[in-house]
Design goal:
Helix content is about 60%, strand content about 10%. With about 100 residues, it is mostly helical. The chain has a domain at about 1-40: YefM-like domain (YefM-like fold). A 3-stranded mixed sheet has the order 1-2-3. Strand 2 (about 25-30) and strand 3 form a beta hairpin. It is elongated. The protein starts with a strand and ends with a helix.
Length: about 100
């Protein structure tokens, strides 16, 4: 995580925001008072973090994912081709 003070962040706001977008780089914006420090993160990354937290907090879902992972690692799963969906079926799914 890159750290920068408020003044430098304001002066170079656009380049720092691009860094969060292009490099998935979090930026710690610091102040003399540490209670005013903030972290800037790209929205896409923030949403991913939030989804991960929701999965960890949902114990049945988290356990189901861990069981699935164990099955894959144990080789007890098999692949299959994707099934083509007709336009009629697609319309019904979105109705």
């Amino acid at each position: 995580m890159q750290a920068v003070n408020y003044s430098a962040f304001r002066r170079n706001l656009k380049s720092y925001l691009r860094s969060t977008r292009d490099d998935a780089e979090e930026i710690l914006v610091t102040n003399n008072d540490p209670s005013e420090n903030v972290v800037v993160v790209n929205l896409r990354d923030w949403e991913s973090i939030q989804e991960t937290l929701r999965i960890y907090e949902n114990e049945p879902l988290h356990e189901k994912l861990l069981r699935g992972k164990a099955e894959v690692l144990a080789g007890s799963t098999e692949g299959h081709p994707l099934v083509a969906v007709s336009e009629d079926d697609a319309e019904l799914a979105h109705a």
